[in-house]
Recover the amino acids of this structure.
């Protein structure tokens, strides 16, 4: 039976947080053009009502609408609200697990952010937090949202002895760590998990499970959730014809960090050398990643820290969290905090 959070639920249940996205989207012409739609139209309660019959009878489900947006418009204030809500819910003994319905466009950022701020807590408590969404709107004939939501509910309710607690994502019948999530295709139904090490839900493969445990063991403590304004960090991609002016403009506007998505092994345009040295001298935090989308970047340059295997959007969140943590706890540097969530051993 699905309820809204207005009705306090004291018995064991799964809490579903609605954030919006295509899973809650509606297309004006679903038969003819399902790819033309508005995200974030249906309430999370309605999404649950559509799968009511299929939810196992012993599973109690409660919902709460946090937002109903197209995730391309995701803001840092909403990320703060989401993480604080997840932390509170994890601490509630009646909450067995949490499912978050989210747009796929920026689920990469949210997945990494929740992993870095709430992952250890979820692991310690043996509870699962599952991100899910859809590539087709709710009224499309082949809508993928209902099955994804049902799978996510079942995975959230899995007994702790079958899977450790943590932050996961479920799409197209597969599960992955939320920190591995990234939308890698414009329209494929498995776009968010396309590149992520994952396992079929019904038949968890032992290799994936042992990797999951190794990643969790390598990760440090959760970083604090930023309150108020987050550190300002931008992403710049190196490319043919890259201009130094863009870096100068950012420095003069007060940017606190820049993620540099370099070519190949993180190469940056020679014309950026001088302004980047200026940026480092002025205390702007610099992190380097690769625009190729795969592989590891371990070599640090003079001024920039290597983001290992993190994509630019993940490295940006990691840098924001690290800058914030270094402000909260002055005994460590932002580089120390960055390493805690970004630098993992080779098994990745
Ligand atoms: C969104 O990210 O909110 C829209 C796209 C999607 O969910 O697939």
């Amino acid at each position: 039976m699905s309820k809204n959070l207005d009705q306090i639920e004291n018995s064991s249940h799964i809490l579903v947080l609605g954030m919006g996205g295509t899973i809650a989207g509606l297309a004006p012409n679903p038969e003819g053009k399902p790819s033309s739609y508005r995200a974030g139209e249906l309430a999370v309660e309605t999404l649950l009502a559509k799968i009511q019959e299929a939810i196992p009878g012993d599973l109690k489900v409660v919902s709460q609408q946090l937002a109903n947006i197209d995730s391309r418009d995701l803001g840092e204030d909403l990320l703060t609200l989401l993480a604080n809500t997840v932390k509170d819910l994890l601490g509630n003994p009646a909450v067995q697990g949490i499912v978050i319905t989210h747009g796929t466009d920026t689920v990469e950022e949210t997945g990494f952010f929740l992993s870095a701020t709430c992952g250890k807590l979820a692991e310690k408590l043996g509870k699962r937090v599952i991100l899910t969404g859809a590539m087709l709107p709710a009224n499309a004939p082949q809508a993928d949202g209902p099955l994804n939501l049902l799978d996510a509910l079942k995975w959230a309710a899995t007994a702790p002895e079958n899977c450790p607690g943590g932050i996961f994502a479920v799409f197209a019948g597969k599960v992955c760590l939320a920190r591995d999530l990234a939308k890698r295709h414009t329209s494929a139904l498995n776009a968010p998990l396309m590149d992520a090490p994952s396992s079929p839900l019904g038949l968890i493969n032992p290799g994936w499970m042992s990797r999951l445990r190794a990643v969790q063991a390598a990760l440090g403590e959760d970083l604090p959730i930023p309150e108020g304004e987050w550190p300002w960090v931008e992403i710049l991609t190196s490319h043919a014809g890259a201009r130094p002016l863009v870096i100068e403009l950012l420095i003069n506007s007060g940017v606190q960090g820049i993620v540099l998505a370099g070519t190949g092994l993180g190469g940056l345009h020679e014309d950026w050398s001088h302004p980047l040295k200026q940026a480092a001298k002025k205390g702007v935090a610099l992190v380097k990643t690769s625009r190729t989308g795969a592989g590891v970047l371990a070599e640090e340059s003079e001024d920039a820290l290597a983001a290992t295997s993190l994509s630019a959007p993940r490295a940006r969140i990691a840098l924001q969290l690290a800058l914030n943590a270094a402000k909260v706890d002055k005994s460590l540097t932002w580089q120390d905090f960055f390493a805690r969530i970004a630098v993992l051993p080779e098994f990745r």
In short: The first helix runs from residue 44 to 50. The mean pLDDT is 93. The pocket of succinic acid is lined by residues 20-22, 39, 70-72, 103-105, 133, 135 (CB under 6 Å).
